[in-house]
Amino acid sequence: MSRREGATAGVEETIDLLVRRHEFVRCLRERPLEKRAMTDELGVSRSTVDRAMRELETAGIVEFVDGAYAVAPFGEVVAEAYARLEETIDVSWRLEPIYRWVSPEDFDVDPRLLADADVYVPRPGDPYAPINRHVETIREMDTYRGVIPATGQHATEAGGEAVLENGARAELVVTHDVAATQRSSGYADTMGKMIESERFRLLVTPRGTHVPYAVHVFDEEVVQIIVHDSDEPRAMLESDSPAAREWAEETYREYREVAEPIEF
Question: N or C: less crowded end of the chain, CB within 10 Å?
């Protein structure tokens, strides 16, 4: 067996051990414990504790020090890595409605940045849940920045109300296809009035620019990401975490830097 093959086998064995014995490692990361205390803490038999400690000690994950078991330095490293993996998988499961409609290559945000995100999807009795939440946020906004690959009448009307009646300020980057829609009879009047108010700026990306999902930043606080299929909104996530907002702002700036103002 080569060193690479041996290392791979060791990794697989360590992951398997952490999966089976993660409760013990998690408990010992809090504080060292004797075996009797572990049986009480975890509600398991003494024989289970004996087997777990033997396996974990052999693997170098725990060590026996001053009459109690504690997580070893190597164990701390792999336990932290395993905890991050658990968190990533947990968040990714909750974000599955987003991943269903956009490729991992396009949606390159670290899932852990979205650990607190709420996900809105169409459901029986509320098939427009994502867009309803989005429109509600538009109506309440004071400031806004966003980039979109598709548009809709309800969002446009809500944006017009926020800018023209409530004094909101907004900047929107769109694709050429969206720009063509916004120049059509159903949108042009509202879009023109918003631009004339000087509280709204509309920009278009270079022709052929790929915008795989919509990114919205409201009031320097709330981030919404909407994924579409055939221009229909399929799912939306919403987060107010600083890390998610930083990622959304950077994504917006990348499109904003190459976009040009649209004249109506």
Answer: N
Q: Which two tokens stand for residue 249?
A: 């702002």
- Whether residues 17 and 114 share a domain: the answer is no
Are 81 and 107 in a shared domain?
no
Residue 96: inside a domain: no
What is the predicted pLDDT for the residue at 35?
Answer: 96
The answer to whether residues 26 and 146 belong to one domain is no
The contacts of residue 39 (CB under 8 Å, 6+ apart) are 45, 46, 49
Total Cβ atoms within 10 A of residue 42 = 16
Tokens 């009448």 sit at which residue? 153
**Cβ atoms 190, 197 nearer than 8 A:** no
Sorted by sequence, the CB contacts under 8 Å of residue 187 that are 6+ apart come out as 151, 153, 156, 181
Two structure tokens written together for 180: 């063509």
What's the one-letter identity of residue 241? S
Are the C-beta atoms of 237 and 96 separated by less than 8 Å? Answer: no
**Residues of the domain holding 157:** 102-261
Give tens-digit pLDDT for 108-158. Answer: 888 888 989 999 999 998 899 999 999 999 999 999 999 999 999 999 999
In the prediction, which pLDDT does 4 show?
Answer: 44
pLDDT digits (tens, 9 = 90+) for 44-61: 999 999 999 999 999 999
